[in-house]
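Quick one: structure for this chain?
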Amino acid sequence: MHPPRLARFLPLFASCGFAGDLLAQMPTDAVLVLEATSSATELNYRLVDLFGRGSTPVRGQNAFLQPPPVSVATDPGQAGAFWFQANPLSFAGTWRCDVGSLATITQSTWGAWLRTAGERVECGQSSVFTLRAGVVEACAKASGAPLPPTTLFTLPQAVDLAVQEPLLYVASFDPNAPSALVEYHLTTRTQRIVGSYLGVRAIAVSPITGELLLGTAGGDLVTVDATTGAVTSTTPAGIGPLVAVGYSRFGTKVYASSNELWSELGPQNPIYTSNRPITDFGVTRLATASVVAFGNGCGLGTTARWAATGLPLRGNVGFTLQLRGGAVNAFALFALGTSRTFASQLGVFLPFDLQPYGAPGCPLLVDPQTSLFRATNGSGEAAVTVPIPNAPSLVGSEFAAQWLLPDPSTGSLGLAVTEGAAFVVR
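Got it. Here's what it folds into:
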């Protein structure tokens, strides 16, 4: 028999009539944040939703690399890959990481692009670009064995790179005077000075307009016409010196100080606040099917994990979400909805602490528009198949799910919650 509070809570999970059981890499519209860590037990990479709806550590990462990496770049041609520049005191050089379902690294490859120290890495459609001691270098992404990189040019005091092929931009920094920003044409191998700007620490190029975004040591966001070099706007970010800037696939700005990450798509508050120094970030720009965990659970849910079979592609009737590490030979309640910001039946914003229902410290992360009970096996596993119709109207739709697990330690509700899982259909 359910506890009284649980009986009052369960009607909120009434089914909304999804077809069948229910109407699933690097997720679409996420920021890959690189944080400085002090031990091999801490994780360097975190995925942050661009709209501020949640974040999660990347699974399976190379936490043994100490000191931690110094720069990271997402791949604009493959949503399932990113690149990082290792610290010169660890396995110095450029690495590629391949990312699978639920943002789990499936393999990491070292050194086919560069095996020497560097300060910055950037990724284009065909090449990886690195910056070390003012030398700008390139190596083909398809390199399968260690090869000498191609030196493009040298820019004293260079600090950051941005690429929108066939153009590569390199910014330099002088604490006392404006310093050069160089445009390099990768096909003609010619270069020109776009202009000179004061205090630039980070640079990005818009995938929509080609404008440049500069982040300064003074905390300003400076937009520049890449053709004329004219400053078109200067905006104080109000968060201190900027360490990295970027653009989403929509052409909106993303920027970070040493401990806050901001996005124009979630402008009211930082989309992520770190208790460790933020070193760099990359923004995913490809619209792709994805499934990724987010948020935190409570009680038994803190150790339970998601798994998935397949990706949420239109017409994939076998897409399945799975629970690992639930209560053994018991039950699990699967909640699914179309929002992870507002619970319509409760009338509250998410995440919502379930303290009023007898589970203090347990956050509801999704709008429970429909629910299913599943029996768990002897390993605490359960699964729900989410058949995705071949309907064009579903493309781009995001769904979010969460498991509720029996756990008397959480309070009178008798349920713990897991982290959430969000998936975008393509």
